[in-house]
Amino acid sequence: MPVMLLLSVGMALLLGACGNTRENASQNGNKAGNAASSVTEPAEDTAPGEAETVTFQAANGDIQVPKHPKRIVDLTTFYTGYFLVLGAKPVGVGEGAMGNPYFKGMLDGAVSIGDDASPEKILELKPDLIVTYSGTEGIEQLEQIAPVVAIEYGKKNYKDQLLDFGKLTGKENEAKQWIGQWEKKIGELKPQVQKAVGNKTVSIINPYAKGLYVFGHNYGRGGEIIYGEFGLKAPPEAQKAAIDSGTGWASISLEKLPEFSGDIVFTCAWSGDTSDPKIVYDSPIWQGLPAVKAGHVFQLNPKGDTYNDPISLDAQLKFISDSLLSAKS
């Protein structure tokens, strides 16, 4: 959930990671913490012109939006979990969000608008707010349907983004409540994890058709937890390429894998192409990694762990924490 700032160019990589088929099974479980209790059904139709409006600062300017939007159409896929945790379930979401196992049961009643929704399909949902990425083609058409708020993916960390969406939906208290609960969980787990991991380095690596992706601190797959909240170290080359660069990811060849592999590795198959991950996993280079030999390789869920919204992070936290604690020397 961020190369990937424009839908026309970057969403292929993001949506590839998420996958477009619906799978409700997860190796990490389908728990999303306390978020499910805050999910509400989409509101009934609101007549145009009735709602009070406020000004919201978006990537596409200062936008007049309903103070309490009732019929949100979310075209982002990777931000859907923010609306769910706030209790502002969209009436329409991308197909990728429908396939996130951590959202199981939370999107009942919402409509899948596919991966490339037409204005006509969006219009049918009678939205009072449309949320999309900055750089989306055809924003002018969408603006004729409802106010459009464009978001620049990855510009804000997930806590600030949640607070921002709290302002957008009139649910700032719900945003603050989630952050408080989250920080309490992290405060309890962080000392345990840091003690168990010690000076070990941690990598997040996905095989794909042309080699491997190495992920950093702000691109899902647990990076926000591993590097951000727990403050664990990446190998120097991964730190430089995927974190210090600010991109959140880097593409490398299989031959360079040992330079980017940490003492602990989180990985999963890449669902964005038809390549067989066993080409990497069965290779002598992968099998020779210290993390593989030590049994410190942990498989992420390619359908859910790609996301870094509050619900997905809540669901990822236990698996990541348990995995790191099990790698204790």
Automatic annotation (TrEMBL):
<feature type="signal peptide">
    <location>
        <begin position="1"/>
        <end position="17"/>
    </location>
</feature>
<keyword id="KW-0732">Signal</keyword>
<feature type="domain" description="Fe/B12 periplasmic-binding">
    <location>
        <begin position="71"/>
        <end position="328"/>
    </location>
</feature>
<dbReference type="Pfam" id="PF01497">
    <property type="entry name" value="Peripla_BP_2"/>
</dbReference>
<protein>
    <submittedName>
        <fullName>ABC transporter substrate-binding protein</fullName>
    </submittedName>
</protein>
<comment type="similarity">
    <text>Belongs to the bacterial solute-binding protein 8 family.</text>
</comment>
<dbReference type="InterPro" id="IPR051313">
    <property type="entry name" value="Bact_iron-sidero_bind"/>
</dbReference>
<dbReference type="InterPro" id="IPR002491">
    <property type="entry name" value="ABC_transptr_periplasmic_BD"/>
</dbReference>
<keyword id="KW-0813">Transport</keyword>
<feature type="region of interest" description="Disordered">
    <location>
        <begin position="25"/>
        <end position="49"/>
    </location>
</feature>
<feature type="compositionally biased region" description="Polar residues">
    <location>
        <begin position="25"/>
        <end position="40"/>
    </location>
</feature>
